[in-house]
Design brief:
This protein is α/β, with parallel strands linked by helices. It has helices spanning 41-48, 70-76, 92-102, 107-120, 136-148, 166-183, 194-197, 217-222, 236-247, 265-275, 290-298, 304-319; strands spanning 3-12, 15-25, 30-34, 56-61, 64-65, 77-80, 154-158, 186-191, 202-207, 210-215, 227-233, 252-254, 257-262, 280-286. It has twelve helices and 14 strands. It binds adenosine-5'-triphosphate (ATP) and magnesium ion.
């Protein structure tokens, strides 16, 4: 075990942002924290990285206690923050040089290592360009390269693909998956993109400062029987009641539609249309996703559109 969180709690002026979080991460694992805005993901990362002192509880990273041995912990980890943190006025290479200097990487090794990480994120040909001229995806890749520079045992990535277009997002994921092979590193990341969480070996789903589920993506989805059916009807309230009375099904209402689980969706749908007794306007059937798992556990959906819009606003304001 390379990370062990023991009952971590963080309070901000009476607000309990993290409410006793315990988990452990194995060496060379890709471990994901999945949860909506304000769930406590960044706060937990900050405690693990010694940037915030826990109100109570502690964590052991690479054998070191975050409270008793913060310097040893810092040497063991690389961190890519949720918000951009490069020096935009410097070149890519100088950003890395500066970081290497702070970490005391010897000069001869510095050069080789910088070349190596630049190669890894395919930025070698842009190393002498000013970061301000980089695209969002290039900046994120450079931040990942910087996080790796001092050979950390654990790399923390807080929302590594936030606000990037789908193509750039999938490329960043290629680097992340490659990294484990090349660097033998443990990766701890947070995301609220359900599809991205699927890449992780294990996921902790966090909501209101508590872990509500922790398992492999496959096992989490197995909690949901068979398939998920979503219908819209002329009268959702009545349809929900009839689903319970006539089919013993508990439906959850989201986005003006009703969602429920059945064993064999294909066979069930014709029955449903025949016997529900309310006009059905549309039917959708899919295999369980992590979104369904979150919905089942919390009764709410993680709405990606609203989340990313809010995030974009946040970035916009920060820039101003
Ligand atoms: N420095 C702070 N002072 C006061 N409250 C804080 C502070 N940092 C975080 N919080 C609060 O703690 C809660 C958890 O915030 P946190 O940033 O950990 O969430 P998150 O899961 O990372 O969300 P997001 O997906 O938006 O990044 C929020 O209610 C937030 O307002
Ligand atoms: Mg966060």
């Amino acid at each position: 075990m390379i990370i062990e969180a023991r009952e971590l709690v963080k309070e901000f002026n009476g607000l309990r942002a993290v409410k006793g979080v315990s988990f452990s991460v194995n060496e060379e694992e890709i471990f994901g924290f999945l949860g909506p805005n304000g769930a406590g993901k960044t706060t937990t990362i900050n405690m693990l990285c010694t940037l915030l002192k826990p109100t109570s509880g502690t964590a052991i990273l690479n054998g070191y206690d975050v409270i008793k041995k913060p310097n040893e912990v810092r040497r063991s980890i690389g961190l890519v923050f949720q918000d951009p943190s490069l020096d935009e006025r410097l070149t890519a290479k100088d950003n890395l040089n500066f970081h290497a200097l702070i970490y005391g990487i010897p000069k001869r090794e510095r050069k080789r290592r910088i070349a190596e990480v630049l190669e890894m994120v395919e930025l070698a040909d842009r190393q002498n360009d000013i970061v301000r001229t980089f695209s969002g995806g290039m900046k994120r890749r450079l931040e990942i390269a910087r996080g790796l520079l001092h050979y950390p045992k654990i790399l923390f990535l807080d929302e590594p693909t936030l606000g990037l277009d789908p193509q750039t997002r999938s490329r960043i994921w290629e680097y992340i998956k490659d990294l484990r092979k090349k660097e033998k590193i443990t990766i701890f990341l947070t995301t609220h993109y359900m599809d991205e969480a699927e890449v992780c070996d294990r996921i902790a789903i966090i909501d209101y400062g508590k872990i509500i589920a922790l398992n492999t993506p496959k096992k989490l989805k197995k909690q949901i029987g068979g398939s998920v059916v979503t219908i819209t009807t002329a009268r959702n309230e009545l349809a929900k009641k009839l689903l319970k009375e006539r089919f013993s099904l508990e439906a959850i209402e989201t986005n003006n539609s009703l969602r429920f689980e059945v064993k064999e969706g294909e066979k069930f749908i014709p029955q449903l249309v025949k016997r529900l007794g309310v006009e059905i306007l549309s039917v959708e059937l899919h295999l369980p996703t992590l979104d369904d798992v979150f919905l089942k556990l919390t009764g709410r959906a993680i709405r990606e559109e609203t989340v990313s819009k809010r995030e974009l606003m946040r970035k916009h304001w920060r820039r101003r």
